[in-house]
């Protein structure tokens, strides 16, 4: 009886010691392994838009040759992803974070600079030089490549051929023009057809970003310094913006539905926007054959390009268990698979920024809606000409300040005072 008692005590003590040795100091190590699988092959991904980004991830899974790989894709609205990342990462814990997360390019630096240790450098899993140059600055930090560039927001000048021809313009007349010339064309279109040239939401300053990036400049400098006062491209963009507004060349919209209705109903002659607007233009089947796409107008400055960007996002890997498996998946699909990108264009309608894909057959497709134009191929070529900028950390915060000042500019406040006051407010807010 006594012998059995001591055998029982020895066994119990052994179990306690083994349990203590197997646990991490903070308990997070085992939790991560349990969540992600012993070999890191069971991972999670966060993205928005089931018909675009999530569809692209699902297609990538089909192209990934790894029978042990499992990935749960969780849909979140983009704003929810931003909030959940900020809340989680600022708390100092990685619990509940995904292995892969999609982040808009213009928001990426706010995360990389604020939480550099939370992300896993993935530059060794693909060749960054295979991607459009303009995507590399926002997806890298401190000499390391953290994001795998995904879709392009390369812009185009979508236009109604019938309206422009009535105003006396051919396609060649619209190629490689400046924004000043665009304004003059808009005046002719208004006079000859009675139609506005484009639709804009005054609360969305995306058109200013499109204009500015043709010159390779932004609201901030490369070192993060706010540069609104004395910013010549921004000043020129605002002058063009005001002329469009004051000459009744814009059909105002207050939401996305009104914006789409403006061109689907035939109320505007053009849509200068990211390539992603193409499917929305094509949604009005009765207008097939009435549209074409020209290169984006540029600001009338030396060195400006007839190419710009509006939107776009990239994939990032969090620095948690499973990071290698996540990086390998991204590298072997979005990072290198030309066949995948052909299917991505045909099945999802997404144009990536992987340059070798542009030589595939899917990119040569002649789109009858756009008069047989090889629209996808043209976008892929313009994409390579987009000037690279560093979007910095506060794009949207600065635009909140600018929005109020621009209204005063339209009401008569001098542009010099507008930019000076916006500069002061931005410096005070983002010290």
Q: Which fold name corresponds to the CATH topology of the largest domain?
A: D-Maltodextrin-Binding Protein, domain 2
Alpha carbon gyration radius: 26 Å
The helix tally amounts to 17
Query: What series of H and E elements makes up the topology?
Result: HHEHEHEHHEEEEHHEHHEHEHEEHHHHH
Averaging pLDDT over every residue, what do you get? Answer: 90
Number of strands: 12
Strand order within the widest beta sheet: 2-1-3-12-6
Helix content bin = 40-55%
Reported CATH architecture of the largest domain: 3-Layer(aba) Sandwich
The CATH homologous superfamily of the largest domain is termed Periplasmic binding protein-like II
* Total separate domains: 2
The level 1 CATH classification of the largest domain is Alpha Beta
Distance from first to last alpha carbon: 75 Å
* Morphology: globular
Structural category is alpha/beta
- Biggest sheet descriptor: 5 strands, mixed
Q: Uncertain segments of ≥5 residues (pLDDT<50)?
A: 1-38
